[in-house]
Write a structure and sequence with these properties.
2 copies of one chain form a homodimer.
Chain A lengths: L8 E5 L3 H12 L3 E6 L3 H10 L3 E3 L11 E4 L3 H12 L7 E4 L15 E7 L16 E5 L2 H12 L5 E3 L2 H31 L8 H13 L2 H4 L3 H4 L2 H10 L4 H18 L1
Parallel strand pairs in A: 1-2, 1-4, 2-3, 4-5, 5-6, 7-8
Antiparallel strand pairs in A: 6-7
Chain lengths: 264, 264
């Protein structure tokens, strides 16, 4: 009987934002998620129920016969738990992590087949994302393992690339600026608007256009506003409006200076 | 003969990013743009041709008989040119500026009818924007003037609000965070990717999802990544990757700390 890629049994280790989104997407594509591990029973059970899997909160109870183990833990927890994760598994088992920041060689000497399966996106449990446009970056210990991971990723997305650990580290750093720091700018704007009793949703057209613009223009060519013109009147005025919040004032000043230094 | 709002003759003073986008949008809605002023002939002529208007580079040649004068100049130039702008016009002429940062009372004592016509968006000449979703904030010296400005804005957008100068100043400050500072985060990511020879467009799905998320979640609830978890391993690693660029390193550090301080 010919087996399809979706018959690959998968164990998820971790049930956080990324694991939840990825497990559900793979489940919907027909993959068999055999087990979900999480430190807390609630997280493990919640995700397991959504993908019709077993769950456990004990690493020694991990299914020993799965083909693919997808580890999606906080970077700090991962190193600590790694020995228990690989213990007592089949020789053919393929272990991957999903972290942009962790090099592949963390697996080296621990198990024979390993790799990285990094979907570069921001995941929250409260929100389902469209995987078809997410770039996946794959790295593996053997070319066969890489092919398997690419085939799994290709069921979800058309944008599947191989990237080594150095490249992935750079992508991850750029993604922190692109996503986390951008989102923090939204959060600071939301704080300001709340202070002045104005609704945040009035900003949404501006947020959307700022994002759309860089599909067409390079970010430095898309820049507008007082910092790039270095309009000292406006900048000084804004700094004085932020006088009661030294942290936000400092950020305003440094980012404005950086815009002026780098964009002109 | 009943006149429609589109018969209001308009003079544009300034031919920059905002003026160019606004004049073209009003022209397309059937407004008669009678004249465009700009300090440089090239800008004045380019926009004037696109909206079938006269152009001038001399403020003393401004059309004296127009109904509406829309001033869209750099904040610093505006104050200097204001006396020449209002000189020798009809008593009924309505003068507005388009700046979020300038209070309405800059007009006070200079002319009888005045106001502010602030479309809160990021405008670049190279890119046409969809005005229908742009919020317009209107302020005027009389309620009749406010009604006229609201009627003009309503031909372009369904989101027309009255806002006083204090509210507009706050919106503008929030918009600098939302748009200019966000765009700078994109620009810093683009620099990093260029350094590592990776294409910027791989970031676009992440940029789009980061923007879409805050349609559904509050920005602080949408946050992900190493700073909110305060994953010191990852943060230290990123800081050392930025060692050759102290400005970017400082920004990384301060924004990460601010995320951690404010989002938890």
């Amino acid at each position: 009987m010919k087996r399809s890629i979706e018959d690959t049994p998968i164990v998820f280790i971790g049930a956080g934002n990324l694991a939840t989104n990825l497990a559900k997407a793979l489940y919907r594509k027909g993959f068999r998620i055999v087990q979900v591990y999480s430190r807390t029973e609630e997280s493990a059970r919640t995700l397991a129920e959504e993908v019709e899997a077993e769950f456990t909160t004990h690493l020694e109870e991990l299914n020993s016969f799965s083909r693919l183990y997808i580890v999606s833990l906080k970077d700090s927890a991962f190193e600590e738990l790694l020995p228990s994760i690989v213990a007592n598994k089949r020789k053919e088992a393929l272990f991957v992590h999903t972290a942009g920041s962790i090099p592949m060689n963390i697996w080296e000497g621990r198990t024979e087949h390993y790799g990285v399966f990094y979907p570069m996106q921001t995941f929250s449990k409260q929100r389902e994302v469209d995987f078809s446009e997410i770039p996946f970056f794959i790295e593996a210990s053997t070319s066969e393992d890489a092919e398997l991971l690419k085939a799994v990723a290709a069921t979800l997305s058309e944008r599947v690339y191989e990237a080594d650990s150095e490249q992935r580290k750079s992508l991850h750093l750029a993604a922190v600026f692109t996503c986390n720091f951008t989102n923090h700018m939204y959060a600071l704007a939301a704080e300001l608007l709340k202070k002045y009793d104005l609704p945040f949703d009035v900003m949404l057209p501006l947020i959307d256009e700022t994002a759309r613009k860089v599909h067409q223009l390079e970010p430095k060519d898309a820049q507008t506003g007082p910092a790039i013109r270095y309009d000292a009147n406006v900048i000084d005025n804004h700094l004085s409006m932020l006088a009661d919040d030294p942290e936000m004032q400092k950020l305003y000043e440094l980012i404005s200076r950086s815009i002026h230094n780098r964009t002109n």
